[in-house]
Amino acid sequence: MCLEIEEVFKNFDFTNDDNAVKVALTLFIETVMVGKDKKTQFNMDVLGRVDDEKVFKNFDWLTFFYTHLLNNLKTILQGKKEAYELKMARSSKAVAYYNIKGYVLAFQTIVQPKPKLSTQEKAFMESRIQGDDNMGIEDNESC
């Protein structure tokens, strides 16, 4: 379980800093990025990927985290409507809530409003979309 491994990590006297970093990184991936409850089973596959530097660098972490977040979003509301309706039948002040587990910053970044661009920045972006490689933002240092 993640909680047990976290306790061992806190109390263990590592003789090798590399191993301490690998365990810390694995705990970070499991509890923060994937959003696992600390009481759930520790994923040894993640530790294996972290343990091998070449595998770690070549692994598709984006898809891994996205899949975990997407699966959580798909299941997060299951049964919530029925539970809310039962609460509303008992009290008109009922409140519905849910928790999103996983690296929600990725989700939050998607729903943030896009920044306002200057006219020059818009023209540059549009030229890139249209494939006009001759359009560029002027470099102030070249003047």
Structural features:
Ulp1-like peptidase, 2 domains, 143 residues, 61% helix, mainly alpha, flat, 8 helices, disordered C terminus, single chain
Describe this structure as you would to a colleague.
The protein is an all-alpha fold and 143 residues long. Helices cover 61% and strands 0% of the residues. The protein has eight helices and no strands. Helix 1 packs antiparallel against helix 2 and helix 2 crosses helix 3 (44-51). The longest helix is centred in the N-terminal third of the chain and has 17 residues, at 17-33. It starts with a helix and ends in a 13-residue tail after the last helix.
Main pleated sheet:
none
**Helical content, roughly?**
55-70%
Structurally, how many domains make up the residues? 2
Q: What sort of overall outline do the alpha carbons produce when their principal axes are compared?
A: flat
Question: Which ranges are low-confidence, i.e. pLDDT below 50, for 5 or more consecutive residues?
Answer: 135-143
Assembly status: single chain
Total strand segments: 0
Strand residue content = under 5%
pLDDT average, as an integer?
Answer: 75
Task: State the secondary-structure class.
Answer: mainly alpha
Number of helices: 8
Return Rg in Å. Answer: 23 Å
Order of helices and strands: HHHHHHHH
Q: Roughly how many Å apart are the termini? A: 61 Å
Protein name: Ulp1-like peptidase
